[in-house]
Amino acid sequence: MKPAKLSLQAFLMSCLVAGWGLVYVGRIKWAIWVAAFMYTGVVLLGVSGLSASPVGLYVLFGFIVTVKLASAIVSAVLARRYNGPPDVPRKRFHALYVGVLIVITFVLMEVLRGPLMGFKNYYIPTGSMSPTVSVGDYIVTDLKPGTPQVGDIVVYRWNGTEAIKRVAGVGGDTLAIVNGELIRNGENLGLFHAPADRVEGPASMTLAPVKVEPGHVYLLGDNRYNSNDSRFMGQVAVEDVVGKVTGIWFSEDRSRIGTRFP
């Protein structure tokens, strides 16, 4: 006789949505506890700031996979032993359960991403920060880094888009570029993270002294010769700085995976 519940179906359902396979086999309370445990763990990792780094992101992914896999295995075992009605719970409850978890996921990852999750991932499509951050890199950004500091790689909003550059100066600083070297408040910072072969052309070699306005940052790309930064677009308000790039969590170049930035 055909079993009332299919083990493979229960396993796959829990892999897709936390605890869904347990709902399938009638263990609704167990399903709710599994979902609550997973989302609580995700929020705690976010609030603590642990997930806003490549290693922390791996821990977050590992935690989610472990919870889902464990519940999937339990669901599959319970499905094999199930001897109740095949149509319990109703399809309407399945839709409600999945819908509620989709809403919770959306709220965490979009509406409350900043205060609760504290991180955001980006794909890099341009080479303005190459070779530090290159085309094909997937970066993780801390959305709660505090005041931008000189040397930070940041994500910022400009002209309706988001991009990344390095902070060369903060409010009150006086900056200049002489022979390709950055001078900040009279201190020579050398090429300031730019490789020598990326410092070419008049705009890369010379910058007349400029004062950074209060509440603003002056941004430069590490790929100085091919970067639309504050030399061309002007200074960026601190309120338009989205977050600090903490590292590369994935890349088309496998050797770059896990790279961390101070």
Automatic annotation (TrEMBL):
The protein in question is named Signal peptidase I
Q: Which SUPFAM superfamilies does the UniProt entry name for this protein?
A: LexA/Signal peptidase
Q: What is its main location?
A: membrane
The entry's keywords: Hydrolase, Membrane, Protease, Transmembrane, Transmembrane helix
Q: Does the keyword Ribonucleoprotein apply?
A: no
| Reactions accelerated catalytically | Cleavage of hydrophobic, N-terminal signal or leader sequences from secreted and periplasmic proteins
Q: Which source organism? A: Pseudomonas cremoris
State any single GO MF term. signal peptidase activity
Q: What class of enzyme is it?
A: hydrolase
Q: Which InterPro entries match?
A: LexA/Signal_pep-like_sf, Pept_S26A_signal_pept_1, Pept_S26A_signal_pept_1_Lys-AS, Peptidase_S26
Q: How does it sit in the membrane?
A: Multi-pass membrane protein
The gene behind this protein is: lepB
Which positions, given as ranges, span the membrane? 31-50, 57-79, 94-112
